[in-house]
Amino acid sequence: MSSCRLLPAFLLWVWAAGGTTYTLSCGKCETHANSMICPESANQERYTVTLFQDGVLQLQCEKSVKLINFALMEDCSFPTVSQLDVLGCPLQSVSFGEIALKLGARPENITSLKLLGDAQHLGQSLQHWHLHGLSSLQIFHVRNHHFTKLPHNIFDATPKLKSLRFVTSNLDAVPETLFSYTVELREIDLSSNSLTHLPVNLFRNLTKLTNVSLQNNALSEIRSELFLSVPFLENLDLSSNLLTSIQENLFNGLKNLTSLNLQRNKLEQLSGDVFSDITAVKNLNLSSNLLKDLGSKTFDNLKNLEILDLGNNRLSDLPDTAFKKCKSLKKLYLNHNELTLLKSTSFPYPKTVLTDLDLGHNKIPSPNNVGSLHGLYSSAESYFPLSRQTELKNIILNDNKFQYIPGSFNTVFLKLESVDLSGNLIQEIDLHSLLFLRESVKLNLKNNDIKIIDLSYLWSVQYSKKFVELSLEGNYLECNCMLYQFARMAQGKTPKEGDLFKIRVEDIDNVTCKIPERGTQKLLTVDTRLLVCKQDPCSNCTSYWRPHDEMLIIDCSYKDLKDLPTCDIDNYGIRKDYFITLNMRNNSITHLDKLQDPMYSRLVNLTIPNNKLSFINESYFPESLKALDVRGNNLTALPESLLEFFNITDMNLSLGNNPWMCSCDTIDFLNFLHVPSRKVNDFNDIRCKDEAESLMTISENSLCPFFMQPMVIITIVAILIFLILFAVLGTVSFYKYKQGIKVWLFTHHMCLWAVTEDEMDADKKYDAFISYSHKDEEFVNKVLVPGLESGDPKYRVCLHYRDWIPGEYIQNQILQSVEASRRTLVVLSSNFIESVWGQLEFKAAHSQALQDRTNRLIVIVYGEIPPESELDDKLQLYISMKTYVKWGDAKFWEKLRYFMPHPQDLIKKRHRKRRDTDKLELCKSDSKLSV
């Protein structure tokens, strides 16, 4: 090891000396701020001398140095130096007193000598004269020098020595008379050597000795006489040796011993009185041995014992009064043993100050198998053997066999700060398990078998402010209703009660839960609104409880039931302020009389499609009802009282697929559906019986033609009177009423040869109304409209955004636009098929054409013709039987203008025969295209 590597290991010694430096100005060396490099930096055999202002002189050698040339520092003088540190230098043929003198220090002033060796100096040995001249030496520390032997008289010249540390130096033996002249010794550290035995009289006459460390050697036995002469010994470290037993009187007379470390030996048993004389001991470490049992009185005399470590042994049982008399015991470690049973009498009592207890990695089960959580807290407290240890702050019970959290944790331990129950068999936690007496507690429940964390009664418990920090990674939580409150708190969605009771899951990023049929999901991302639990309050039905909206979901679908179910809700622990969702899909229900049952007073959602209802009585509905689904029943009409009820409650309705009767009595129902704010989910599926057309598309006139009957009678009488007057008045009267007669002829489809197209449509405002999907707006506005309005002749076009009156009903505006136009152009595309309003416009135009018995409908195919499966039945029939115009056809505009209205003066200019011929050719062309 190079000397530069030794420097970090030596920093502790330098720090102890203060580490303050100042500038050197002596010697024949390369001078730096507070050090000298001799002879210079480039020399491979150089050494460095550093002087610290607080009396520390440090000599550090390069690894190639064998003989140190001290002549380079002949004129240096450091009279205040009291500590000499030698790093990485080989032993010289002169004493360390002479070395100090050659470096400029005064040997008689040196009180501390510290040697840090190097592996390259193996084979060197200290000689008895190496410490000559250091008569004031009090501290001698040696590390990593690999001296296997020590001269028996090496300390004869250092009678004032107080601290000896000979660490990691491969000593395999020490002379019995080594300390004959060092009666002032307080500390001896012979750690990490190869000692196999110690002379019985090694510590004779060391009456001032307080600290002895013999750890990490190969001692298999220690004679009982070894410590007889050290009555003031306070700290004894015998750890990491090969001791298999301890002589009963080994520690006799050590009345001042406060710390005894026997860990990492091979002790299999302890005699009953081995510790009887060390009554002042505070810290006793017996961990990592082979102890299988303890004597009942082994620790009885340790009245001042504060820390006892028995971890990593093979203890399977504790004596009844093992630690009962250890009234000062604060920390007890029994981890990594084989304990299967705890007894309350084994622990300090009646006086106890025990604050930390480690029982981890044993086989301790739940006390007395009190395995059920609910209602057994008093039992758990009575039987839990630690209930008397009321001062406990930290309890470690990890990797045992606990099946629940003992009730004493919540009822006895006022000062409890942390509990480690990780690696146990706990399956369920409820609110009471987490309500500790102390305001803030850390609870480690990692790697259990926890499936349920039920905080559902959080709202009903009275408690003061509480905070619990949980660790839950490695469990098997189930994502159901019982997890709802906990999941919300873990996600930071604190309920109203959360201002008092708070939970923080420190490993929340790694906590998962299992969702039925969906696998595992991180708890942080679980949608708590969907968490449910299966219940069974209703026979023949499946029920779920959803805490998010306090909803009891009763699913009785496909059960062939003839009446609504009766449920025993009160006996299933469901909160009193619950709501009900009832699903009766696909049964044989004919009436809803049972809704008057008190259990349905909180019904909010009634789903009862595909049953046999033919009548609904609104008086049966509870005030809480918000949604009603009666699709697929036998309803033919809704009474006026029921419609008024729906208006008042603003209910969400589904009414489709019923055999509705369409007559004058249906007008109120139709008006009800046309209210824009009405919450009817399926108004397009509400159809008249045996009709494919939606009720929404039928006008009042079509629904109830009898409203027009008086007007028809008046018109007929007026026409008869007109005819009589016409016969009497003759030609003059004829010309006076000419227009009216032609209207009458046209209405009755008589003498149509005498009625020109211009005359029939003379009162119409527009030449064409264009029906299209808003997604085809660019084609209509940039191509179709300009072509019609700027061509020859120029046509007047009706458009939604330009000619409709804002605020009017859309259905009425569609009918008015069709009636006010000579033609209706339908831009048929895939987008048009998806447009509800577009299909309404087509049906209105088609109905007007049938009424007028003239072809007013022109279909323009934009893009590919949609599949027949996507087309409305009437539109599909129209396409198959009528001619249409396709965008992209070379004669598109010629064909379109031909089908548009023809002004009378234009007709006169064209030859009738040529017109008929052209029309025939165009029709043939269209027929081929449609094929």
How much helix, percentage-wise, in residues?
10-25%
Return the CATH architecture of one domain.
Answer: Alpha-Beta Horseshoe
User: What Rg, in angstroms, do the CA atoms define?
Assistant: 53 Å
CATH class category label of one domain:
Alpha Beta
Estimate the mean pLDDT confidence.
84
| Main pleated-sheet profile | 21 strands, mixed
Membrane topology: Single-pass membrane protein
Organism: Cherax quadricarinatus
Keywords: Glycoprotein, Leucine-rich repeat, Membrane, Receptor, Repeat, Signal, Transmembrane, Transmembrane helix
Family: Belongs to the Toll-like receptor family.
What is the compact description of this entry?
Belongs to the Toll-like receptor family. This protein has 931 residues and is of the alpha/beta class.
Describe the structure.
Its main location: membrane. The chain crosses the membrane at residues 711-735. Residues 764-900 form the TIR domain. This protein has 931 residues and is an alpha/beta fold. Among the domains are: 444-530, no CATH class; 534-706, Alpha-Beta Horseshoe (Leucine-rich repeat, LRR (right-handed beta-alpha superhelix)); 707-755, no CATH class; 758-930, 3-Layer(aba) Sandwich (Rossmann fold), CATH 3.40.50.10140. The strands form 5 sheets. It has a 21-stranded mixed sheet. Helix 16 runs parallel beside helix 18 (836-852). The two termini are 99 Å apart.
